[in-house]
Specification:
The termini are far apart. The longest helix is centred in the N-terminal third of the chain and has 50 residues. The protein has 1 helix and 9 strands; from the N terminus they run αβββββββββ. The chain has a single domain, classed as minor pseudopilin epsh domain (minor pseudopilin epsh fold, 3-Layer(bab) Sandwich). By secondary structure, it is an alpha+beta fold.
Length: 156
């Protein structure tokens, strides 16, 4: 009786070929997943900024606590604050973190360009104290959010 051991299982060569094919697929697909994630983080940051501006405007229009409300922009945070002047560390501030790899690159409000800035909304009218743009950036993408004189937000 002759035994054919080579027909009973898979060879090391077959295992190496399967590992090589899987590795190649991972190399092809992983940059695409990274790109999709980066794009989603950018969209979420745009939504966070838009939502924060709308929240501050509506709280000012509703005259919540008989006060104005505003938004402060930092490279890694969006902060909704109460009053006309932003103060760091106040308990009533609402902090929203900007998730990496997105960051607020530039804030141009009232003609002044900086890495941070703030605006507030007038009670009853809802008019913003400043108009301008907020530039959000990731490694591959950049978007500009514009805040108009009526307090409306648009994205390029």
């Amino acid at each position: 009786m002759i035994h054919f051991f080579y027909q009973k299982g898979i060879t090391i060569l077959e295992i190496l070929i399967v590992i090589a094919v899987i590795g190649l697929l991972v190399l092809i697909v992983s940059p695409r997943f990274s790109d999709i994630r980066e794009n989603q983080v950018l969209k979420n940051t745009i939504e966070d900024i838009t939502s924060s501006v709308h929240t501050a405007k509506s709280q000012s229009l509703a005259s919540v606590d008989s006060s104005e409300y505003g938004v402060h922009f930092k490279s890694n945070q969006i902060i909704i604050f109460k009053g006309k002047i932003f103060s760091e560390g106040v308990g009533s501030n609402v902090l929203i973190d900007v998730v990496s790899p997105a960051s607020i690159l530039n804030v141009t409000l009232g003609g002044v360009s900086s890495s941070s800035g703030n605006l507030y909304f007038e009670r009853l009218s809802g008019a913003p104290s400043k108009t301008g743009t907020v530039t959000i950036s990731t490694v591959s993408y950049t978007k500009i959010i514009t805040i108009s004189a009526t307090g409306n937000v648009s994205v390029n």
